[in-house]
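2 proteins. here.
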Amino acid sequence: MEIVKLNKDYANELFLIDKSAFKNCWTADEFFVELNTQNRIYFGVKENKKLIAYIGLNVVFDECDIIRIAVLKEEQHKGVAKYLLNQVINFLKQNNVFKIMLEVSDINNNAINLYKSVGFKQIFLREKYYEDMSNALIFELEL
């Protein structure tokens, strides 16, 4: 697996990954805007020259918010997301980021377990935050 920094040329590939991973996926146009937004950094995982996962970050000074992370459906449960997350954590440490935050639905057990496995701690709960009335869990990792 290879980690690559992504730019606007990857917008359509990110859309395809998102579409395979989420019911409410973003459009290619939304990814294009994201990839051109100040403070946004996107990384991907390539395997055999094919993009199979991505993570989007919003980095401001010494703090980072994980905006979105997704793995192609057929590549899930193979450790790709954990590999990507660990690589990003190392990148952020090297770039003087001291805190990472994210939000996840309380019904997304796979994501919750992933975040906990790399050291994230739940710090807040937003009740009935999502359209489906699930709660949003706010996680933090101090580096």
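next one coming up
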Amino acid sequence: MASISKEIVIEAGADDVWEVIGDFAAGPSRMAPGFVVDTRAEAGFRVVTFADGTVVRERCVDVDDATRRIVYSVVDGTVRPEHDNASMQVVADGERRCRLRWTRDLLPEELAAPMARAMSRGLEAVKRTLDGTGDPHPRETSSSARPSRRFG
């Protein structure tokens, strides 16, 4: 299993950013317009269409307003991992600054590199949309994609 973890700083209040990130039904279109071209909600699922033609069906696992964390899983579409579990969490870093942490566990491991690239492009779009500085080129504060250790 591969684990991907990325984090960026957004120059906006955590509550304002969470209002968009935590919107399971429409969040992708709101946070990354242009990168995401359509989002449709379907009773506990959403179908997200990306500008490159990729379409995924995602299941909502959890939305936790208290911790500003959303968890979801790709279950169908043009990308069909054997296993996918992703979370996005907004963490306050001052009154008008926050960090967005995006993590994903994924099988097969061969999907890790293309998924990590897509997540980086997605974070660029999120930064352009939500960041109060207008800086279109976010600097990821951390990024990793690695195979997880297997026990057995």
